[in-house]
Give the backbone structure.
Amino acid sequence: MNSLLPFRKSVHFRAGRGAHGMGQQQAGAKGEDVVVKVPPGTVVRSSDGVALLELMRPGQRALLLPGGRGGRGNAAFKSGANKVPRIAEKGEKGPEMWLELELKLVADVGIVGAPNAGKSTLLSVISAAKPTIANYPFTTLLPNLGVVSLDFDATMVVADLPGLLEGAHRGYGLGHEFLRHSERCSVLVHVVDGSGQQPEYEFEAVRLELELFSPSLVDKPFVVVYNKMDLPEAAEKWKIFRENLQAQGIEPYCISAINRQGTQDVIHAAYKLLQKERQRMKETEEWSGPENLNHVADAIKKERRSAMNEFEIFHDKGKNTWNVVGAGIERFVQMTNWQYSDSLKRFQHALEACGVNRTLIKRGVKEGDTVIVGEMEMVWNDEPKSTRPSNTMNSKDDAVRWPEFG
């Protein structure tokens, strides 16, 4: 894939459902994974904007949501006292999540600079790309990509990025549209309009915007290109511009992109920096080891394995309602199959064992109060100090009481 456009038509993805268990102690088959394809350079964020992971290279896979575990059959509850238990679990519901996807361009070299500096012209003469070119700002509204060939097996992908205005780090002009793509480039080619009134100021202004948006951008290796040497006003200012940058330890290149003069020197300088950056990244990856792209699913699994005794209780005095909230106890409720009488007894014992009943009593629960745990709603019964499902209490003479239920 090379874009996120397909997600405009399809936004819901659901993995396959596991099969039911069968006789002879046979577990049901697992549900099939759903694979969502995204283009390289995709940033995956949670619905509240927190970055979860990035998929940068073709073939990378990341597990975001694990499936729910299967429910156990009655054979799993067999004991010496109960050879044929009448109980079985439901399968655990799988987690759900809303995600935001953002595509950041992945290119080897990014051509940056102020509007109308000649970035698109440079891309058009060094590659086969045909970007829109005109003598006014913001001709480029979206990045253009071109492949530059230096030799039989030496190529690099070059991106012409939208022009940058002062204040771009705050979103002015096409600021964020420009800057988010520049983060993905290994090397930057900074094009300066030599015919401008103050080329030195233009260079410093763009560098400042890069730094204000992300300090890592100014640390990227870069080449400075002084363009439009075919114009007299640019040629006059070149000497002062070069001396100014040389004083900062930077050796700029002068070119006329429209006449293809000096462009090959720029290509080879950028490729030399790219080779060094690729080697540095390779050494860094070898040192740090393989990245765990399944950390989101691992965190969800850990949270869902939380103990039954990890819970909070919230009291609504106006409605006499007590809400018991905890991943472990709520999962227990969801997986309980209430068709079996042994399931009700097992659940009441679980409430006692994990401390829910003791905590309710300590907090001041009263006869008739509603206690909600996950999808189960119960009514508190002072005698014998327990809860029971609200749909079993039809009258005060109701003989069905926990834990003696069944």
In short: Residues 263-288 form the longest helix (26 residues). The two ends are 58 Å apart (CA to CA). Residues 109 and 289 are 26 Å apart (CA to CA).
